[in-house]
UniProtKB/TrEMBL annotation:
<keyword id="KW-0805">Transcription regulation</keyword>
<dbReference type="GO" id="GO:0032993">
    <property type="term" value="C:protein-DNA complex"/>
</dbReference>
<comment type="similarity">
    <text>Belongs to the LysR transcriptional regulatory family.</text>
</comment>
<dbReference type="InterPro" id="IPR000847">
    <property type="entry name" value="LysR_HTH_N"/>
</dbReference>
<dbReference type="Pfam" id="PF00126">
    <property type="entry name" value="HTH_1"/>
</dbReference>
<keyword id="KW-0804">Transcription</keyword>
<dbReference type="GO" id="GO:0003677">
    <property type="term" value="F:DNA binding"/>
</dbReference>
<dbReference type="Pfam" id="PF03466">
    <property type="entry name" value="LysR_substrate"/>
</dbReference>
<dbReference type="GO" id="GO:0003700">
    <property type="term" value="F:DNA-binding transcription factor activity"/>
</dbReference>
<keyword id="KW-0238">DNA-binding</keyword>
<dbReference type="InterPro" id="IPR036388">
    <property type="entry name" value="WH-like_DNA-bd_sf"/>
</dbReference>
<feature type="domain" description="HTH lysR-type">
    <location>
        <begin position="3"/>
        <end position="60"/>
    </location>
</feature>
<dbReference type="InterPro" id="IPR036390">
    <property type="entry name" value="WH_DNA-bd_sf"/>
</dbReference>
<protein>
    <submittedName>
        <fullName>LysR family transcriptional regulator</fullName>
    </submittedName>
</protein>
<dbReference type="InterPro" id="IPR005119">
    <property type="entry name" value="LysR_subst-bd"/>
</dbReference>
Length: 308
């Protein structure tokens, strides 16, 4: 019986993500739906592809040797399909087909989604797909052709290098804001504010480095506690209850407004981050058009000047 290529690609995604649950999230399917496709693929081939004792739920899935071999073939199928799509682009009169964008939540909601939907409204032949996935998954999906463009943040000097064959383009500078409890008195001097308690996260090490630098400049030692990989709502919730001040990107604050916090202007320049997009070197014309639209949206709708 012929093998359904869609199930091959699903098998590949399950191996890449490590579990049925993670694959289901990425593919926008239910976990039971993913499991059913795997079972049908095994029935088509008459071969066990996964270890039944390790299968299902959020647990790591274990492949049989046959399953790993077939997943390798599925990777080559995905690359061939992506190459075919790129080749067909030259025969189209205008941009058409899927436009696949991955990124983190703020970049997706503030940049990726509105721009992709506006482009699709102007050209109904476009079919945008937007995914919120981790940085490592985004880079892998870009390299294999599952994504056309990813929205990211330019790493610091000590950050990881981008993989070969990937081009990074600056989109906009997102300034940091100093956020304090609304009940705190105004601080006219930076040193007065810097001497207070601060809340940091391991997810945003750049902001902590900025704080440490500013404290050194004023002869102070940073008084802070790290809440781990806390989300923006958690961070702002702690600030709102008076547990300390924090530094947060403007777009993140825009997404999480709170009447119990306020922006302090005591520190004139707390720093910024640069939002970027990444694409393959051989990206089709529609990707470059998307980049231009993203930069235009950043400059006009978000009131930030594109960096670089």
């Amino acid at each position: 019986m012929p093998v359904d290529p869609r199930r091959l690609l699903l098998l590949r995604t399950v191996r890449r993500t490590g579990s049925v649950l993670a694959a289901a999230r990425l593919l926008h399917l239910t976990p039971s739906g993913v499991s059913q496709h795997l079972t049908k693929l095994e029935n088509e081939l008459g071969i066990d592809l996964v270890d039944r004792e390790q299968r299902g739920g959020g647990r790591t899935i274990r492949f049989t040797p046959a399953g790993n071999a077939l997943a390798d073939h599925a990777g080559r199928v995905a690359e061939a399909l992506a190459e075919a799509e790129r080749d067909m682009e030259q025969f189209r009169e205008g941009p058409a087909g899927p436009l696949r964008i991955g990124g983190f939540s703020v970049a997706i909601s503030e940049l990726g989604a509105p721009v992709a939907m506006r482009m699709a409204a102007a050209n109904p032949a476009l079919d945008p797909h937007v995914y919120e996935i981790s940085e490592s998954e985004r880079l892998h999906a870009l390299a294999t052709g599952e994504l056309d463009l990813i929205l990211s943040e330019r790493p610091g000097a000590d950050g990881p290098e981008r993989p070969p064959g990937v081009v990074e383009v600056d989109l906009m500078r997102d300034p940091f804001r100093v956020v304090v409890p609304a009940t705190w008195p105004s601080d006219a001097e930076p040193a007065t504010l810097l001497a207070r308690r601060w809340i940091t996260t391991s997810f945003g090490p750049a902001t902590r480095r900025h704080l440490e630098r500013m404290c050194r400049e004023h002869g102070l030692e940073l008084d802070s506690y790290d809440i781990g990989t806390g989300t923006a709502p958690t961070l702002l919730g702690l600030v709102a209850h008076g547990l300390g001040a924090t530094i947060i990107p403007s777009l993140t604050l825009r997404q999480n407004p709170s009447p119990k916090v306020r922006i302090s202007s005591a520190i004139a320049d707390p720093g910024s981050r640069v939002l970027t997009c990444l694409h393959r070197e051989n990206a089709p014309a529609i990707v470059h058009h998307l980049i231009n639209e993203l930069r235009h949206h950043a400059a006009t709708e978000l009131q930030h000047v594109p960096s670089g």
